[in-house]
# Entry
Amino acid sequence: MISYICGKVVLERANFVVVDVNGIGYKVSTIAKISLDDGKEIKLFCHQHLREDCSDLYGFSSFEELELFEKLISVNGVGPKAAMTIMGLAPVEKIIESIISEDANFFQSASGVGEKASIKIIVDLKSKISDLKYSGNISAGINQDVYEGLETLGYKKAEIDQIIGKMPTNLESSEDKVRWCLKNLSKG
# Structure
C-alpha cells in the first residue's frame, strides 16, 4: 500500500496532481487545487483505494485530513469520491464540528450526499471521532485548557467533545467555560 508520496508536480488539475517520484508518475486525487507551479516538490499522505478494476490514490496535505477521509469511507454507502467532496467543503475542524453538532445539512451540501447518507455519517462517526487529533472545538486551542481540565476530572473524550461543541460562545474565561460544561454534563 502507498501511504505517502514525495516528489515533483509535473501536472496539476482542479482535483488531481501527477507527482513524479524517481521517474514514475503517480496520479493522486486531491481535495482542491494545490496551487503549486509545475516542478515544485509536494508531500502527500495517501490512501490507496483498491477495486477489481482500478487502484486510485487520494492525497492529503496533513495526516489529520487522511484520518478523517478514512473514517468517512468507513461509513457504509460513502465512497472515496463522496468523501473527497465532503473533505472539500471545509477544514477538518469544521467537518468534525458538524458531526458533533449533528448538522446533517452540512453534509447534504456536498454533491451526491443525500439525507440518509448524512444521517449515517453522523450516527456512525460521532463515537469514532474522539480519537482524532482535531476533536471538536479543541483544535482552535482556545478551549484546550477546558478540555484538559475536564479530562483530568475523569470525563471521556467523546463526552468532552460533545459538550464543548454545544458551549455558548459568549463565555469568556476558562473558569466560566468549565463551570458551564460541568453543569451541563451533570444534566446529561
Remarks:
- The helical segments are 63-73, 80-87, 92-100, 104-108, 115-125, 144-152, 157-166, 174-187.
- The chain has three domains: 4-60, 63-131, 137-187.
- The domain at 4-60 is CATH 2.40.50.140 (OB fold (Dihydrolipoamide Acetyltransferase, E2P)).
- The first strand starts at residue 4 and ends at 12.
